[in-house]
Amino acid sequence: MLKKKIQTAFNKQLNAEVYSAYLYWSMSAHFESLNLKGFASWMRIQALEEMTHAEKFFNFINERSGRVQLTAIEGPPTEWDSPLAIFQATYTHEVKVSGMINKLADLAVAESDHASQVFLQWFVNEQVEEESSADAAVQRLKLAADAPGALFLIDQELGQRVFVPPAAGA
Ligand code: FEO
């Protein structure tokens, strides 16, 4: 049985994961408007991943006989100044999410909820990858700043990303 405190915090994180999907979907729409199809596709896959994160919380809350309570999703920004600004915002957002996950891990320890601690480990590892991939794109876009042709190469490369759903039970 999930303690009320953890249930409330997990429902809040479920909302935050759906917001992340919304944010990346909005970024994808922005890239579509610039006809940068590779970046747009990368962001759409990022949004899909975020929905699998939300679903993990949905499933875990139910498995622990808790109650999923969905709340309104805040509207994301719709415009950014440049592809670099978008990936900088992505990196900043992922650092913020890492902080949220760390706080949840602290709460699970404080509440002696070992099952939640194990569950959250997946997210702790995932956040390392999330920050790293956003930061890699930021660094490459900075290098490309003085070479417009490079932007299209990065667009093509990011367009190669494929959606890989997390393994069942992972
Ligand atoms: Fe759900 Fe991008 O972390």
UniProtKB/TrEMBL annotation:
Residues 1-145 form the Ferritin-like diiron domain. One of its GO terms (molecular function) is ferrous iron binding. Pfam families: Ferritin. GO terms for biological process: intracellular iron ion homeostasis; iron ion transport. The keyword Iron applies. Gene3D superfamilies: 1.20.1260.10. GO terms for cellular component: cytosol. This is Ferritin-like diiron domain-containing protein.
